[in-house]
Design brief:
Blueprint lengths: L1 H9 L10 H34 L1 H19 L3 H5 L10 H37 L7 H7 L1 H9 L3 H6 L3 H26 L1 H26 L15 H19 L6
Helix pairs in contact: 2-3, 2-9, 3-6, 5-7, 5-11, 6-10, 7-10, 9-10
């Protein structure tokens, strides 16, 4: 199903070069499928390690915290919004850089606001709606940290597919598994369930930095300094408008009755 959905999405993009779909599938999709399976293996291994070392109750607490993080990330599906736009800009590097810069600024700004609201109101929300999980509040405060860094990394993810470099994502996922398998037992030994959340936060940070530098090799024209997060030129505002139009279209789309 993922292969078919990817085909439907990218088939609507501007054609740059003509290549047989099944050849692309054979040469590149294997890495994407491999990354997906290794990613699921990482998630399952992390839960099994927590269960073996800390017990079933700790798994429930950890799963609740990770679930909250997943809901926060899904508030702005920026990766899905810009994915159809990127293939048509692969040969238009200047426009592509503007789109990515605008996407990162938007994702980071939204992530910052959501994180601030979360820190202010999460205690009340959990106490009222999830009283059984009040004890997870320290975990939530730790695990929300990767949310800000992912705000920078999320817009970069579709680029690896657009540049047919899914192998990089596969290797990055394998690296994540190696880091987790090595550091999680140590973190749990010294800090318990809080150590599991610290390990997740640090692993996400390391992988996001690693993917950023791999992305720089794909698109050397891209650069972004810390002060760039607080300014936006006319071209980036235009790119931001394109993203907002995509978001509006996505929110107002009528579901298919069939």
């Amino acid at each position: 199903p993922r292969t078919l959905s990817a085909y439907r999405m990218f088939s609507r993009a501007t054609e740059v070069t003509r290549e047989p779909f099944w050849r692309l599938l054979r040469e590149h999709r294997k890495w994407s499928v491999g990354a997906s399976y290794v990613g699921m293996l990482v998630q399952n291994m992390r839960l099994w390690i927590i269960k073996i070392l800390l017990g079933t109750e700790a798994v429930g607490m950890y799963a609740f915290a990770v679930g909250i993080l997943g809901h926060l990330v899904s508030i702005l599906p920026l990766g899905a919004l810009i994915t159809p736009l990127i293939p048509g800009l692969v040969d238009k590097r200047t426009e592509l850089v503007r789109l990515i810069r605008a996407s990162i600024k938007l994702q980071f700004a939204v992530s910052l606001v959501i994180a601030a609201v979360f820190f202010i109101g999460s205690s009340t929300i959990v106490s009222v709606f999830f009283p059984k999980y009040v004890a997870t509040m320290p975990l939530l405060y730790i695990i929300v940290a990767p949310f800000l860094f992912s705000g920078i990394a999320i817009p970069l993810m579709p680029l690896f597919s657009a540049f047919t470099d899914q192998k990089t994502l596969f290797l990055s996922t394998v690296l994540r598994m190696a880091i987790m398998r090595t550091s999680l037992p140590i973190a749990i030994h010294y800090f318990g369930i809080i150590g599991a959340c610290i390990e997740l936060s640090l692993t996400v940070l390391i992988i996001d930095i690693e993917r950023y530098y791999r992305f720089k090799k794909l698109l050397p024209e891209f650069s972004m300094r810390p002060r760039d997060f607080f300014s936006m030129d006319a071209h980036e505002r235009h790119a931001m408008g394109t993203i907002f139009r995509g978001l509006k279209s996505r929110m107002t789309r009528v579901p298919d009755a069939t």
